[in-house]
Amino acid sequence: MKLLHLSDLHLGKRFNEASLQDDQKYILGRALEAVREEKPDAVLIAGDIYDKQVPPIEAVALWHEFLTRLTGLCAHVFVLPGNHDSPERVTQYAGLTDQAGLHLAPVYGGAMKPITLRDEYGEVDVWQLPFIRPVSVRRFFPEAVIDTYTDAARAALSGCTFTPGRRNVLSAHQYVNGAERSDSDTEPVGGLDTVDVSAFDGFDYVALGHIHRAQSVTENGRIHYCGAPLKYTFGECDQQKSLTVAELDGAGKVTLRAWPLIPLREVRKLRGSFEELMNGQPCEDYIHLTLTDENEVPDAMNRLKQRYRNALQLTYDNSRTRNTSVEWEAADIEKQPLELFGDYFRQQAGREASAEEMDYMKKIISIIWEEEDA
Predict the structure, then answer these.
(1) What are phi and psi of 317, to 5 degrees?
(2) Whether 62 and 199 share a structural domain
(3) Could you give the CA distance from residue 209 to residue 216 in angstroms, rounded to a whole number?
(4) The domain containing residue 366 runs over which residues?
(5) Quick one: 142 and 88 in the same domain?
(6) How many domains does the chain have?
């Protein structure tokens, strides 16, 4: 069975306040080309359709146009909401569209029910798990201890009753331990919102959304992020965006291929003196400019925009900026909030925080994270 896996469209997103409407429309067109070329049995869209829970009307219209064309090309399309989406908005017609081959994951309600597909090897059950938090799962399992995201995922997936002889595919939108994040991903708080890979035992393929860098979390590719279809920060310049084509054989072994997505505009960094950059090749790409001039150039950004129309950011790298009085330790930038609290406590109290104090802070951070992300 051939599956085409994509996620994290983030329709309506702006890049340094620049509209990405044309870029997103273009890349969705490329996704439709992939469907025409690959002819998959199903398309799995693993969350974050929109960038905000109340998206702009242009983003809603773009999604409607894409979904209409997509369902005309593929017999089965699976869609679930991510943490950026309003679940009610994305899946408001869940259950009414199944006969048309559009399978919208309902708002999580404590039960799991698959859609069964068939190929020459037999039957494949496709399960969908929208983005969940411990608080959204606890009320359905009052007897269970659900303190972590791993607890929540295990409880939710305990409702998946596997039928002997069938292969099982899961589409989900969660952070999984071991995945490499991009700087456009929402940072987990102290690792508290990650799910252990063991929560997905029993599934032949887990099509994940939430992390924007394409990658497999397991060596055999069984648990996989397809990544976002576009670069959303300058920190992603080195990434090659793609869709994932996953093929399941009769035994449930998965083979993955990347289907490259070439954007309408690239995301690039350019560095040099003002004179060097003004003599560079004009382009329409989204550009981060770094000037190496020792003295600040008057009106540099507006002048450089005459050559680089979509220049979005300008910084200086010279002896003055390198010797700034505010110095950051690279190691500190990489630390999680719980680690930073431990450092702060040590500096203020002159001792290490006790296990009880660290556990208390861990719970506080978790509560704050859930409230802010709700």
Answers:
(1) -130, 100
(2) yes
(3) 12
(4) 330-373
(5) yes
(6) 3
